Amino acid sequence: MLNKFSSSISAILDSRAEGYSLPAGLYTREDVFQADLDVFFRKHWIYVGLECDVPEAGDATVIDIGTTSLILLRDDDDEIRVVHNVCRHRGTRLLDGGPTVISKLVCPYHQWTYELSGELIHAPHMGTDFDKSCHNLKPVHFRSIGGLIYVCLSETPPADIAHLERVMEERLAPYDIRNTRVAHQTDVIETGNWKLTMENNRECYHCAANHPELCVSFIDLDFGFDPATLSEEDRAEAEEHQRLYVKRIAAWEADGHLSSPVEQLAGHETNFRTQRLIIAGAGESQTPDATAASTKLLGTMTRKDLGDTHLWGHNAWNHFMGDHAVTAMVIPLSANRTLVRTKWLVHKDAVEGVDYDLEKLTNVWVATTDQDAELVGRSQLGVEDPAYEPGPYSRFTEGQLDDFATWYVERMRAHGY
User: Fold this and answer.
1) Do 237 and 295 belong together in one domain?
2) pLDDT by residue (tens digit) across 400-412?
3) The whole model's pTM is what?
4) Which structural domain range is residue 100 located in?
């Protein structure tokens, strides 16, 4: 039987109208926040990092999700592992937050010691009858998909991650993300609910008025438009752009570069969308002048004119271009605070100041993330206002938001709310 909080959440879910934004309580209430953590960040696959975060044996980094702490590491056999950051003795945290280099995992409390495989090898003063093999570190379900690390904290992870894996291993292969390095990272705390962060990323209705840097290379027409409100000249431009897309995708795919949209949204457990997008202007990269930021291209890429392969998930967005990639991870911190961790990836042998300029590489998404943080903060203030009531999504430009809200409600229902 549902408890009081779950029943209350269920009533709010019932009140969500198709085609409208979510009711206020789903953005503001503490019980909803805890339910979101449980459903979307423990029972579904989430993106948490990259193989290149731990490029060498002994490299490790800690990722915290609510009260759960994980260690992503590379073991002595050069294999990626993800384990819980919890000593099997009395629960002490093994590692502090952030990256580190280790030869063994040693608990700072009583010096229980684990191999990088998670195997307990030393537990002093536990007696001769103590079976160390029963107290190895707890492993976490994970998949490395094209070098992107997804984890699921549930004992029964959704099986449809297999579709994401099939689609993206092939699409990401030319970029060889496993052999990149992180050239830069930013952590931005947005003062808004995680769903507002994701909704903001799912549309470009707001782009022209708020993202001048991004709009040099991004084409807002890709995210929809109302033809009835356009001038004859603008409508002709939009129609020409649509024809160009059909032509460009056909040409890309004829050359072996998968480009057509693939979606797994409402009606599925694992939420993702991918497509190759045209880059505006010079057409090479998401930089201040839309030209490549790095002369050393990723992986086996030999062309700069292959657009932007984007990948969305329910806690991430990614852009893969010939010269660099941008990945963003979203982790809820509270009902009204969200971590957005953005990483810029370059070829592992690219040298700053020689092969790329860091300012040019990062300018667009540093500015865009800061601008989005302000917008999300304003949205949070709005949904907390007693005057807020759910508003209608534009069917032309915000269809992805309606899909996301529908998926959100479906998944909450599937887990008993």
Assistant:
1) yes
2) 999 999 999 999 9
3) 0.95
4) 46-157
